[in-house]
Amino acid sequence: MTIEVLNRIGGQPTRSSAPTFERRNPARNDEVVSVAPDSSVADVTAAVDAAVEAQAKWRATTPTQRADILTKASRILASRTDEIAAEMVREEGKPLADAKNEASRTPKNLELYAGEAYRLSGATFPSDDTPLVYSVLDPVGVVGVITPWNFPLNMASRKIGPALAAGNTVVFKPSPMTPLMGERLASAFIEAGLPDGVLNVVHGFAAGAHVVNDTRVNAVTFTGSNATGHKIHQAMGLGRRVQLELGGKNPVIVLADADLDAAAQIVARSSFSLTGQACTGAGRILVDASIHDALLERVVALAKAYVVGPGDVAGVTMGPLVDEAAVQAMERAVAEAVGLGAKVACGGARLAEGELANGWFYPATILVDVDPSSPLSCNEVFGPVVGFEKINGVDEAIASANAVEYGLSAAVCTKDLATAQRCAAELQAGMVRINRPTVGAAFNAPFGGIKQSGTATHKEQLGPTVMDFYTVMRTVWLGS
Ligand code: NAD
């Protein structure tokens, strides 16, 4: 069944005169899951008009009013976990267990952000000549929220939640791969009683750029690719805020003293969970030469054990890639690496047998003898293709891990505490995991990258600075 998704402007489902686009099930391409408008400049302008108009009243609401709506939206979403997870499998493609995990984590994010409405605080300052000097936090104004498809609920909730809690109004642009998920999230807020115009949703391919180009949008929080991030950064200019959470080329370092069975599990999970379509997914395995073959044998066995297929089929542990272009990107990356001397240890060709012929499937793929300066080692691939590189000792491992432009997530497998602490201190990554996979997030801990993996303006998720991006601090001198 195809679901028609409309924009949401001023609280109302709103038709556009622009053409629509289809989103097909990535596992069964003959099924059109959702149809949404490819919004025009006029649609986006109307959404920003509504957000601007709603701003004054929303910023004047009390913390309790804002927290109550976020809490209610959280409960609405939680009551629909199974239904939304099933739709997510059809629209985005991840296996049902992963979709349920995301659909149940998103309401928890909103509960946390509801509390943030109460925790916004300023400070007082000793002064020589004025009785009271203090700071206050105001909302920024209108926030543009632009999100990718790989965590269509969770990622957006981590932006819309704190933006609303601080008293901002929002124009939300979900990925064109997952318009239905964007609608499901937005409708929970609107059903929870959010006043008209506080959250507006526009769909489409060029709509993100239209949001960014409207200078009444005071801040843009974006998660997505580096190519798009660079464009947004340039377009925002002086006086408007931008938060970018971008891609990664995340290493797993496996040192000679590591527990090999545990390390193999960590490497496989980092590289292949969510079909490698996680920003924190591993792309490089830096393994000590002395244990290279023993680790490779174990990881190849785990890679071959993935059951690839549609995410709603029982027993499937690896779903499809997001689209045909993603499959072709895997094919190009593997061919290029092989052309530069790498060898395929497993996988390496698209899967199109039987029912897989109707979807965008690619298997868990390991390349060995990868040149550390080759594109496979330096550029994000965003799929289940990983390269093994030999290193000798921790010095070389750290130097090699830090040699790429990205700095999102890094994992280290070692039994030695001093080595682990040194890696934690010296690895240039926003998140370092010791004997843990590169993927995953603590939903109450700061999340984000450094170097080319983001602006590092403020960390997403929770943590002491999560609300900084969504608030403006002003200082008051109160004389008598
Ligand atoms: P993308 O950059 O293609 O698209 C992201 C969003 O930006 C979409 O909504 C898209 O429509 C919109 N967009 C496209 N062009 C735009 C423009 N010129 N101006 C404004 N908006 C525009 O990324 P994607 O393919 O959806 O997502 C995959 C990428 O996201 C990967 O690089 C991945 O690493 C990254 N990602 C990062 C994180 C993180 O937290 N660092 C998390 C998830 C995904």
Report on the structure:
This protein folds into 2 domains: 269 residues, 3-Layer(aba) Sandwich (Aldehyde Dehydrogenase, Chain A, domain 1); 185 residues, Aldehyde Dehydrogenase, Chain A, domain 2 (3-Layer(aba) Sandwich), CATH 3.40.309. The chain is 37% helix and 22% strand. The longest helix has 24 residues. The chain is globular and about 75 Å long. Nicotinamide-adenine-dinucleotide binds next to helix 7 and helix 8.
Poorly predicted parts: none
Ligands bound here? nicotinamide-adenine-dinucleotide
- The main sheet orders its strands as 15-16-17-14-13-19-20
Q: Quote the average pLDDT.
A: 96
Q: From the 3D coordinates, which CATH architecture of the largest domain would you assign?
A: 3-Layer(aba) Sandwich
Strand content: 15-25%
* Outline: globular
Rounded Rg: 23 Å
User: What is the SS-derived class?
Assistant: alpha/beta
Number of helices: 14
**What is the distance, rounded to the nearest whole angstrom, between the alpha carbons of the first and last residues?**
67 Å
CATH top level label of the largest domain: Alpha Beta
Q: For the record, what is the CATH homologous superfamily label of the largest domain?
A: Aldehyde Dehydrogenase, Chain A, domain 1
Total number of β-strand segments? 24
Number of domains: 2
Q: How would you characterize the largest beta sheet?
A: 7 strands, mixed
* Residues in helices, as a percent range: 25-40%
CATH fold title of the largest domain: Aldehyde Dehydrogenase, Chain A, domain 1
